[in-house]
Amino acid sequence: FDDINDNHVGIDINGLKSNLSFPAGYHEDGSRQFRNLSLIGQRIQVWVEYHGLEKRMDVTLAPFRLSKPKTPLLSLPLDLSSIVLNNGMYVGFSSSTGSVLTSHYVLGWSFKMNGQAQELTLSQLPKLPRVGPKKISRLLTIGLPLISVIVILAAVSGVVYFMRRKRKFAEVVEDWELEYGPHRFKFKDLYVATKGFKDKELLGSGGFGKVFRGVLPTSKLEVAVKRVSHESRQGMKEFIAEIVSIGRLRHRNLVQLLGYCRRKDELLLVYDYMPNGSLDKYLYGQPKLTLNWRQRFRVIKGVASGLFYLHEEWEQVVIHRDVKASNVLLDSELNGRLGDFGLARLYDHGTEPQTTHIMGTLGYLAPEHTRTGRATPCTDVFAFGAFMLEVACGRRPILQSPTDNVILVDWVYSCWCKGDILEAKDPYLGSDYAAEEVELVLKLGLICSHSQPEARPTMRHVVQILDGDMPSPELSSLSLSSSGLAYAHGEGFDGFSMMYTTSTYNGTSQSSTVAASHLSGGR
After folding, report:
1. Which of 34, 47, 216, 365 could form a disulfide with 60 if both were Cys (CB 3.0 to 4.6 A apart)?
2. Residues 342 and 247 in one domain
3. Are residues 113 and 92 in the same domain?
4. Same domain, 437 and 520
5. Inter-axis angle of helices 377-393 and 408-417, nearest 10
6. Within a 10 A sphere around the Cβ of 338, how many other Cβ atoms?
């Protein structure tokens, strides 16, 4: 009840909380020093006085046989006129011992209205009874109740803690998920692994969720945990089925998807942890660390090999749908691994993919995908073309500026038209690069960016070209200047930007052709 201590005097008005309180004691006359008094084990005098004219209550304490001090211990402005004038007023004593057994004694008292109460004859008052309890009885009367209270409080606290913890780690498990048991993680394990999803464990965030670093408590395996919001219950079963299928993919250039966890409207995807993070942080914004050409070329070839595996070598066709530098992670040896399969779709070989919502990142979307909503291996090839130019040039596919938005593939194409395609290479490469490899990547990036899907090579051919097992087709044979690249970025991106202009371009519609695009210097 907000008591100041366990040895105090208080004035309570219609309640158990004191309106005014002070440690037990008295003000010594003359010196006016305050002397403390113990309320336990000794006789004490108490004066309680109410002054009707001044509407004030005074409480004064003093040791036994000491006259009343002039200065009261407590003085509280209080109007009791409505109570005093009431014929039903009572005056008396009451006490409460709480959980500890105590005894209260009133050795004598005096009361008077409209005047001074009669002084007590202290010599005639009985002595305070003294009881010397045995050690065993003291243990039983004081220790046992105290221990009981502690045990009860501990039990209640334990139940409350258990219930809260149970709700905190509650998961949704439906019958159809039982077959995916080995691929499902407990939310509690992921919570412990990421230290409660603390910000210091945050690896990155994007439009589809946040990624946290974690260490699984049992196996001590380092993992990356992605929290994905999935509010649509209708497609949950199909989505998890595809996630579990993708978890069976095995390739040295793919980030291994270890499993998932489902809790309420949230999905958590668990991946292998890549210690060197994503590729994009080595490319943009004057990075402190950058990759030389040998490392970049190895990453490009590795991602190409991973995409070829997804398209042709696995039991089903897997369309990644979001190939870009930020989704390529680097392992401890700086090998590129394609990750983030949150948008991936699967279908059987020899069948046609179904139409879906347009998903992906602007600048990597093939024009036919923005028109039909159908993702195919050709749309992944288009995104891989943008990725190759991104790595070789160190620039994003679309560079936004206050006056214009410049498309990277158009600028590379303009450099090729001028007969100096190497002008488009990343200036951070310096002079330490293989010119023929850079030129190959830039030309192959343009070929993969053709607006007509049938004009793009397959990932099998891309891998063969990068490995030198197949010659690169000449750009002139594709007649890109007439319709290819200009058509791709004039119509394909314009249509998409008009549909999503608010969230992506802040209300600015886009229109670009090869002739109108221009980039000079810098990133």
Report:
1. 47
2. no
3. yes
4. yes
5. 70
6. 26
Please indicate, yes or no, whether residues 269 and 280 belong to a single structural domain of this protein: no
The answer to whether residue 518 sits within a structural domain is yes
Query: Residues, the chain, total?
Result: 523
Phi-psi region of 168 (alpha: psi -120 to 50; beta: other; left: phi over 0): alpha
Any alpha helices (H) in 8-127, and if so which ranges? 81-84
If one counts every other C-beta atom within 10 angstroms of the C-beta of residue 304, the result is 26
What pTM was estimated for this model as a whole?
0.59
pLDDT tens series, the chain, 523 aa: 788 888 899 988 888 888 899 999 999 988 889 999 988 878 899 999 988 889 999 999 999 889 899 999 999 998 888 776 676 677 788 776 666 777 888 888 888 888 888 888 888 888 877 765 555 566 667 777 888 889 988 888 888 877 776 666 666 666 556 555 457 888 889 999 999 999 999 988 765 678 999 999 989 999 999 887 655 444 566 667 667 777 788 999 999 888 888 877 778 889 899 999 999 989 986 667 889 999 999 999 999 999 999 999 999 999 998 999 999 999 999 999 998 876 777 777 777 676 566 777 888 999 998 888 889 999 999 999 999 999 999 999 998 766 666 889 999 999 998 989 999 999 999 888 999 999 999 999 999 999 999 999 999 999 999 999 998 777 764 445 434 554 444 443 333 333 333 333 333 333 333 322 323 333 3
Residue of 77, 82, 58 whose CA lies nearest to 68: 58
Strand 44-51 vs strand 56-63: parallel, antiparallel, or unpaired?
antiparallel
Using CA atoms, how far residue 441 sits from 30, 408, 431, 463, in Å, is 101, 14, 17, 11
Burial class (CB in 10 A: 0-12, 13-18, 19+), 163: exposed
Per the structure, the complete domain to which residue 81 belongs is given by 8-124
Both 518 and 393 in a single domain? yes
* Whether residues 392 and 263 fall in one domain: no
Residue 77: inside a domain, yes or no?
A: yes
User: How far is C-alpha 435 from the geometric centre of its chain's CA atoms?
Assistant: 45
324 annotated as ligand-binding:
no
Q: Kindly give the interhelix angle for 293-308 and 435-448, rounded to the nearest 10 degrees.
A: 40
Q: Are 323 and 422 contained in the same domain?
A: yes
Residues labelled as active-site residues: 322
* C-beta neighbour count of 235 within 10 angstroms: 10
Q: How many Å apart are CA 387 and CA 167, to the nearest integer?
A: 44
Shared domain check, 417 and 378:
yes
Residues 17 and 10: their CA atoms lie apart, in Å, by: 9
Domain boundary residue, one of 273, 291, 306 = 273
Of 90, 124, 158, the last residue of a domain is 124
Q: Count up the domains in the chain and report the number.
A: 3
Does residue 245 form part of some domain? yes
**Angstrom distances, CA of residue 401 to CA of 141, 269, 468, 498:** 82, 35, 38, 18
Q: Is residue 465 part of a domain?
A: yes
